[in-house]
Amino acid sequence: MAEGNSVMDEIRAQHQKMKGKTPKEKFQYFWEYYRIPTIVTIVVAALVGNLIYTMVTAKDTAFAVVLINGYTDMDTTAYMSGFEEFAQIDTKEYSTNMEANFTIDHQSSDQYAMANLQKLMALVAAKELDVIIADEDTLLNYAQAGYFHNLNEALPQETLDKYKDDFLYCDLPEDTIEGKVPVAIRVTDTPLLTETQAYAAYPDAWLGAIINSEHPEYLDTFLQYLENTPAEAEAEE
After folding, report:
1. CA-to-CA dists, residue 154 to 106, 148, 178, 208, 211, angstroms
2. CA distances from 8 to 2, 12, 17, 27, 60 (A)
3. Which of 204, 150, 145, 155 lies closest to 177 in space, CA to CA?
4. CA 103 remoteness from chain centre
5. Is 15 exposed, middle or buried (0-12, 13-18, 19+ CB in 10 A)?
6. Which secondary-structure segment (H or E) carries 168?
7. Which pLDDT value is given to residue 38?
8. Strands 60-68 and 94-102: what pairing?
9. Which residue has the higher pLDDT, 2 or 169?
10. Judging by beta carbons within 10 Å of its beta carbon (0-12, 13-18, 19+), is residue 80 exposed, middle or buried?
11. Is residue 112 classed as helix, strand or coil in its secondary structure?
12. Which H helix or E strand runs over 31?
């Protein structure tokens, strides 16, 4: 734009240049001078639109599970869809999630292992994770760091009695109880893990409930689902 000219003066000048030009010439002029700003505008508009759509349509997570060091190609989406139906979760408002093949090795410093370690910490800090299933060493490592509930305080007595021989005990760092308390339940023989062989490399697999979970009401229901439902379970159409 020429110095001293207003935006309107510049627009009039551009219109004057286009007088008498053919459509092809007008297009070539546009393409020469305005293609980059136009493309940038379209891309920005698309990104903003996608962000707005995602924010408007996003559902809160009602229950989230991570399988640490459990390797499986199962359809976790279908399995958790079955849980949504089993737990009568309103899927118009809420979703569920299970993430498998989540590797953590505290002895490793490779980028993948470190990224997963940081991701897990972020999920817990953001209160976006409810349950961890893991091998014993990993489960105890996080229990000793204060990640898990004392299950005596998280489950009804009937469930505690049912699993009394399948608890993993640990002395939690910040509780007021002397001695060890149950922090995890052995889930090695559940249909999910026997059928998928997700923890075939380990003697046992354990389930712990994240201490700051915002959905503790689903813990007992998830245990029932885990114990009775095949890995290929899907919600009915």
Report:
1. 28, 10, 18, 11, 9
2. 12, 6, 14, 22, 48
3. 150
4. 15
5. exposed
6. strand 167-170
7. 52
8. parallel
9. 169
10. buried
11. helix
12. helix 23-57
Please give the average per-residue pLDDT across 134-143, as a whole number. Answer: 94
What does the alpha-carbon distance between residue 148 and residue 202 come to, in Å, rounded to a whole number? 21
Q: Is the dihedral of CA 220, 133, 143, 212 positive or negative?
A: negative
Q: Could you give the CA distance from residue 7 to residue 110 in angstroms, rounded to a whole number?
A: 55
Query: In this structure, what token pair is assigned to residue 39?
Result: 């493309």
Q: What amino acid is encoded at 149 in this protein?
A: H
- The residue type found at 119 is K
What's the pLDDT tens digit per position in 146-185? Answer: 999 999 999 999 999 999 999 999 988 877 778 899 999 9
The Cα diameter of the chain in Å comes to: 92
| CA torsion, ordered 226, 230, 232, 234, to nearest 10 deg | -70
pTM exceeding the 0.85 threshold for the entire prediction: no
